[in-house]
Amino acid sequence: MKVVSYFQLKEVRWAIAEQDLAAIRTELPAVDIRSIDDESELPAALAEADVFVGWTFPAALFGAAKRLRWMHSANAGVEANLFPEMVASDVILTNGAGLHSVSIPEHVLGLMLALARNFHESIRLQARASWERFPVIAFGGGIKELDGSNLAILGAGAIGTSLARLGHALGMKVRVLRRRPGRPVEGAEAVVGPESKLELLSWADFVVLATPLTRETENLIDRAALAAMKSSAYLVNIARGECVDDDALVEALRAGAIAGAGLDTFREEPLPASSPYWSLPGVIVTPHISGYTPRYFERTLELFRDNLRRFVSGQPLRNVVDKRLGYVTG
Question: How far apart, in whole angstroms, are the C-alpha atoms of residue 27 and residue 104?
Fold first, then answer.
């Protein structure tokens, strides 16, 4: 069984360490695993591969990968791997769902606290060595307390459910939107379906996007959604940039229709210097780092090795993606 490992995503590169590759070969002698770091070697390697592990499979090479049976993406969001040929094939797709269930909810809490306490305004004053209390206290929607605030979470995967629990522990009132509202979420006082989106948004002080990118979630936050939000409310996006209508959000922020936003993901990355998000005073921009944790690659390898053992022995795999829906449904 031939396994090809290739980790390259935009400016980020990683390779499974040689000692880990050797450990896999020792544990599973039937597995011939090869780590590719030169893109030019991919066509030949993938043509013989039974398994691919990485972030994104090159769609142009899929047709020649006749032996491919299983593709594992270390990302939780797998939209880049759901090209038509892959969706229509019998190739199993698994993902990294759950790897970010600590780091991303903590990142969201950091953004919500920074927005609630107007840290972004304090930092601007600090850069000018200007000691002014009132601009910080009154900036945007004014200083808030998370305790007692209303938190709306759009998406109930590992990230959304973990955030619901943490928000509840901080005294927030939590409501969650999910595709199947009949399934409860720990820490949430209510779980609603997509038809209740606008009502949920009008209730919230903080709206957090934690959905996968699908046809249903593209532009989930549009003009109607932003119009439903309170002028004192904040939007936090750690899902995908395509889940937000950028023109509508910029207009809402400039008009004071919402108080501000914490944004970690964008349609175009790196975010261009010309983007208004850099200079809008109510916005905190982070460079798509919410998923980073010092243990990310360790956890990625642990999950893949467990699934590889299962694949070799014919056991059910963890995190199997429903390719029609675009996410893990179990």
Answer: 33
Pairing type for strands 173-177 and 150-154 reads parallel
Average pLDDT, the chain: 96
Average of per-residue pLDDT across 76-86: 96
**What is the maximal distance between C-alpha atoms in the chain?**
67
* Catalytic positions: 240, 269, 288
pTM: 0.92
**Helix axes 103-116 and 119-127, enclosed angle (nearest 10):** 70
The answer to whether domain 2-99+293-328 and domain 103-285 are alike in fold is yes
> How confident is the model over 152-193, as pLDDT tens digits?
999 999 999 999 999 999 999 999 999 999 999 999 999 999
Give SS3 for 197.
helix
Neighbours of 227 (CB within 10 A): 14
Q: Give the angle subtended at the CA of 292 by the CAs of 288 and 298, to the nearest 5°.
A: 145
Could you give the dihedral angle defined by the CA atoms of residues 130, 135, 140 and 141, in that order, rounded to the nearest 10 degrees? 140
Model confidence at 41: pLDDT above 80: yes
**Is there a contact between 200 and 313 (Cβ–Cβ < 8 Å)?**
no
CA dihedral for 56, 61, 63, 68, sign (positive or negative): negative
Q: 93: helix, coil or strand?
A: strand
119: phi then psi, degrees, rounded to nearest 5: -60, -35
Indicate the CATH number of 2-99+293-328 among 3.40.50.300, 3.40.50.720, 3.30.470.20, 3.90.1150.10: 3.40.50.720
Return the CA Rg of the chain.
Answer: 21
Q: What is the DSSP letter of 320?
A: B
pLDDT band at residue 141 using 50, 70 and 90 as cut-offs: confident
Nearest by Cα to 55 from 19, 101, 23, 93: 93
Domain 103-285 has CATH 3.40.50.720: yes
Mean pLDDT along residues 285-311: 95
**What is the domain partition of the chain in residue ranges?**
2-99+293-328, 103-285
